[in-house]
Amino acid sequence: MTFEVSSSVTLLFDFWNVRGPGGMLLSVLVVFLLTVLYEALKVWRVNLGGRLKPAEPYAAPTFLHSECISTLERSFSESSVTPIASQPSASNTRDSWLLHGLQTVLHMIQVTLGYMLMLCVMSYNVWIFLGVIVGSALGFFISFPLLGQM
What is the pLDDT of residues 9-48, one digit of tens each? Predict the structure, then answer.
């Protein structure tokens, strides 16, 4: 298989059968917009992931560096692996599960969209390939600066 410059291609499904320059232009635009959406989904998931902080089940051990401390005293003590006593509130736990569920749905959409875009590229049409590449670049250019503002 090699890349070809053509205005006829079948993308993803039998009904998406492109014949002619107008259909190719529309198909490239659709693939371009789907790729921008894919990049925006990645940023949205990262933003939601920043809001979801998993609780640390154990307190982190603390060490004091000194030449006078013996090797035995520098080892983990029982208090360094004691579970943290604070329990999250019921509403916080519920919100955490809802947020995790939303992230899971977004992940499924992102993976599905990514595989569909990969299959579009595997049509070996240069115009579709360029639509995916330019859409990815524009999506990254637009979306990732927004990540710092969220």
Answer: 999 999 999 999 999 999 999 999 999 999 999 988 888 7
Q: How far apart are CA 66 and CA 15, in angstroms?
A: 73
How many angstroms separate the first and last alpha carbons of the chain?
A: 43
> When comparing pLDDT for 38 and 87, which is higher?
38
**pTM for the whole structure:** 0.69
12: nearest Cα among 124, 114, 116, 108: 116
Integer CA distances (angstroms), 19 to 10, 32, 47, 88, in order: 9, 18, 41, 59
Scored b (16 or more CB within 10 A) or e, 83-92 reads: eeeeeeeeee
DSSP state string for 96-132: HHHHHHHHHHHHHHHHHHHHHHHHHHTT-BHHHHHHH
Measured in residues, the chain has a length of 150
Kindly write down the DSSP assignment for every residue of 9-32, as one continuous string.
EE-SSTT-EEESHHHHHHHHHHHH
